[in-house]
Fold:
Amino acid sequence: MAGSVYKQFDRNIHIKPPTYDYADVWIGVDFGGNDATAFTATGLVKNYKGIEVFDTYYHKNGESGIKNINQYTHDLIQFCHKVYNQTQKTISVYIDPANLTFKQLVQEETYKQENKFIFVESFMKRSSDKNKSSVQERIDITELMFGAQFITISPDAVKLIDAIEQAEYNNKNERADDGRSDIDSLDSFEYSWLKEKKLIKEIILGA
Structure:
């Protein structure tokens, strides 16, 4: 059933204009190739008061023209410049480890002087809980953030908001990844904060 995954999400609470006043800025990247390519810019609010999704990018080949890997690399660097202009913060970029060629192309771009504020970081998708899949762990942390009102999303992030509202479980009780909902936007969103999952849980739970 659509909307069965993120039960804590509430448009009236979690959709707010961004402040652009951040301690750290992270971008999660899901490079699609045949699937959609999505970038999500997330800011850690100063004094660790929460995180804000303040900008997004989405493109799917066949829906709005065709782009190759070099064009997506260019788009990501331009997106980073836009984010830097909004925040004046260095940017940590987290690219799905499965997208090694794309990651290498982006890494090469960061060596240029004009891109010195961009840092391509590594992260692990593996779950910290051996009893949960990596995807379920990410869902649980997202629900924790929604429940604690720790996260807000820009009203301009339409694709991500739709993805959150439409996500559903399949008959194996796993988040459906069969085209019925926009997994690419969700993955990109999760990659943006996944390396900081321990910090996020500690702030919310006070552990």
Remarks:
- The mean pLDDT is 93.
- The beta strands are 22-30, 37-45, 51-59, 91-95, 118-121, 151-153.
